[in-house]
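Milestone M4 deliverable, item 7.
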Amino acid sequence: MPSGRSVERIPVTRLANGHDVELVVHVIRGAKDGPKLAMFGGIHGDEPLGTEAVRRVLQQIDPEQVSGTIVAIPVANPYSFEAGKRFTPA
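Output delivered:
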């Protein structure tokens, strides 16, 4: 598979209020085979720096300079992140 970037939306669940929850997953495939790295941010909605760190790392990576694959989820708990609360309000 060639090197490059992709962004996928992965459905997670449907809440009781009818809202569908999905995660935005970024994948960077390096030019060479190698290990896989997973990065998560936004697990706790009151900690926005993790999301910003993942965003900055993704922005700076050149897939041609990578060996392996990077999978990143900048916001792992979208409801909590949107509310700015430690836990999912629902």
